Every structure is written in structure tokens, then in C-alpha cells.
């Protein structure tokens, strides 16, 4: 049986009895159509009480063939990235309200104000999560201007009615 750090911390704090069993969190990756051989779009970890949803960096790649959309149009690329984040969260029974952290990468920091406007619009009425905004010299493919990754946390998905 694998023993995790959480188990060791609880045991050392005297919070576990000798018969307690540590259950490893359930992990599941979800893949896009064209990217399934390259990377997962999301990774979900369910620890029994909450689900952590890690959304990979989303960019303006066409979900079907990977071609870059909105070349030279920062606002269009940003809106598409956030639309893909919305869809990825929805597929995991989560919403923009569940986002607890964002990290964005811009190839030109002069687009910072446009990014912040795009983020506010994409988040709608959801509370703004803690952000990290980084300027980078390039992203994975030529023509990409912005990449956004998020982490969300939701209550454990119920499998039956109360």
C-alpha cells in the first residue's frame, strides 16, 4: 500500500487510529480530439470530499485540428482560450465560479490591459481568482499570443440523490 504525505502528517498528529486506511485520491485525465496523443486537457483529482480540476494551458487552437485561430488578434485568442476553459470545466461538472487560480502567459506584455479585460469578461459574475501573469518570449506554436491555465475546486460529484 502506498503511504502518502497526507497520511503521514495525520498519523504523526495523532489524528488516525491504527485501523485507518489511506485511500489514494482518484485521478482521471480527459483528452481533446487532436491533442490526445500529446497532452491531457484536464486532470481531475477526487480526494473523497472535493475534486481538484487542473485545466491545461488553453490557447486559440482549433479543438478539431490544432490550427491556430485568430492569428494576430490578441482579444480573439484570449476569448477563445477562456471559451475552451469554460467548456473544459463544464465537461467536468464545474463552472467559472469554481476557479481558484489562474496563470496566463503573454508573448507581449503590452497586451496586459487587454488580457485583464478579457479575463473579467470571461469570468462574468464569478469572483476573480488569484492570478499569475507572465511575459514569455514565445509559446508552443508560432502565432500564439496568450495561454491560460486554471485550477478549480468543486465539491465531490454526487453519484446518487440524497
Q: Could you describe the 3D structure shown?
A:
With 162 residues, the chain is of the alpha+beta class. The protein is 23% helix and 26% strand. It is built from three helices and six strands; from the N terminus they run αβββαβαββ. A six-stranded mixed sheet has the order 1-2-3-6-4-5. Helix 2 runs parallel beside helix 3. It is globular, with a radius of gyration of 19 Å. The relative contact order is 0.18. Residues 5-20 and 158-162 have low confidence and may be disordered.
List keywords for this structure.
disordered C terminus, 162 residues, alpha+beta, 6 strands, 3 helices, globular, 23% helix, six-stranded mixed sheet
Write the layout of secondary structure elements.
Elements: H1 5-12, E1 26-30, E2 42-46, E3 50-58, H2 74-91, E4 99-106, H3 112-123, E5 131-135, E6 146-155
Parallel strand pairs: 4-5
Antiparallel strand pairs: 1-2, 2-3, 3-6, 4-6
Helix pairs in contact: 2-3
Helix/strand/pairing class, anyone?
alpha+beta
Strand order across the biggest sheet? 1-2-3-6-4-5
What is the molecular shape?
A: globular
In DSSP terms (H or I, runs of 4 or more residues), the helix count works out at: 3
Mean of residue pLDDT values? 84
State the gist of this model.
With 162 residues, the chain is of the alpha+beta class. It contains 3 helices and 6 strands.
Amino acid at each position: 500500500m502506498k503511504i502518502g504525505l497526507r497520511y503521514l502528517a495525520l498519523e504523526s498528529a495523532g489524528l488516525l487510529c491504527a485501523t485507518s486506511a489511506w485511500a489514494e485520491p482518484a485521478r482521471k485525465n480527459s483528452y481533446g480530439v487532436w491533442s490526445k496523443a500529446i497532452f491531457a486537457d484536464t486532470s481531475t483529482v477526487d480526494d473523497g470530499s472535493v475534486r481538484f480540476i487542473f485545466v491545461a494551458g488553453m490557447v486559440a487552437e482549433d479543438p478539431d485540428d490544432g490550427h491556430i485561430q485568430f492569428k494576430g488578434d490578441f482579444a480573439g485568442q484570449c476569448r477563445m482560450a477562456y471559451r475552451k476553459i469554460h467548456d473544459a470545466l463544464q465537461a467536468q461538472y464545474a463552472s467559472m465560479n469554481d476557479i481558484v487560480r489562474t496563470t496566463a502567459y503573454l508573448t507581449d506584455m503590452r497586451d496586459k490591459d487587454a488580457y485583464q479585460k478579457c479575463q473579467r469578461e470571461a469570468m462574468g459574475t464569478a469572483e476573480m481568482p488569484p492570478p499569475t501573469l507572465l511575459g514569455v518570449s514565445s509559446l508552443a506554436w508560432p502565432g500564439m499570443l496568450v495561454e491560460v491555465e486554471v485550477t478549480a475546486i468543486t465539491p465531490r460529484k454526487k453519484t446518487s440523490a440524497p
